[in-house]
């Protein structure tokens, strides 16, 4: 589904400072980025560079020290249903079934018949038909994240924010979930912004890869990924993009190490 009214997400000269004891820590500095409607953007950077802080500001869970985020013309200052968020941990309610966890993401005023239809649609979307009555502890990590994604999509958000959603998964499950998220994105065409430490993952999923500097976090470079999908991680063009991004991380290191991929 194309985002309503084709709204772009605009991050405009964003700064974020934290007070730690008697010191002020600059987490983000002059971050500007535009996510076009239906675009998939990956954000990579070293630990502590402010990637997750940036995502939390876009979600309305943190406030910026300066600058602003807009969806279309409307400034974002608080959480809202037009933005969904998926965290590294699935954060499901353990006493609720898969069905109830997904339904929990629905607007309170939604009529019961419509709610049931939406849950059915999203169970189908994330490939969990048949697991409606299961509880979170009965699911694998990947299945739990599918429930979390379904819940986040229940209100047809214009933007889905993914904060290291596969970080706790094993390698094979992680690849499977990457393919699942890509399938969901191709079906829904929701604007997606993914924060990840995995450069291959960023290239495999993203239309563009945003490389952030170490703290204070700034946008060091935006690397386009003009490769057709599905992408071959061993293809020459994929490897060349990987080298470009690695070079940004290791530009101060001797060249052989920067290209040892």
From TrEMBL:
<dbReference type="InterPro" id="IPR003439">
    <property type="entry name" value="ABC_transporter-like_ATP-bd"/>
</dbReference>
<keyword id="KW-0813">Transport</keyword>
<dbReference type="GO" id="GO:0016887">
    <property type="term" value="F:ATP hydrolysis activity"/>
</dbReference>
<dbReference type="Pfam" id="PF00005">
    <property type="entry name" value="ABC_tran"/>
</dbReference>
<dbReference type="InterPro" id="IPR050166">
    <property type="entry name" value="ABC_transporter_ATP-bind"/>
</dbReference>
<keyword id="KW-0067">ATP-binding</keyword>
<dbReference type="GO" id="GO:0005524">
    <property type="term" value="F:ATP binding"/>
</dbReference>
<dbReference type="InterPro" id="IPR027417">
    <property type="entry name" value="P-loop_NTPase"/>
</dbReference>
<feature type="domain" description="ABC transporter">
    <location>
        <begin position="9"/>
        <end position="239"/>
    </location>
</feature>
<protein>
    <submittedName>
        <fullName>ABC transporter ATP-binding protein</fullName>
    </submittedName>
</protein>
<dbReference type="InterPro" id="IPR003593">
    <property type="entry name" value="AAA+_ATPase"/>
</dbReference>
<dbReference type="InterPro" id="IPR017871">
    <property type="entry name" value="ABC_transporter-like_CS"/>
</dbReference>
<keyword id="KW-0547">Nucleotide-binding</keyword>
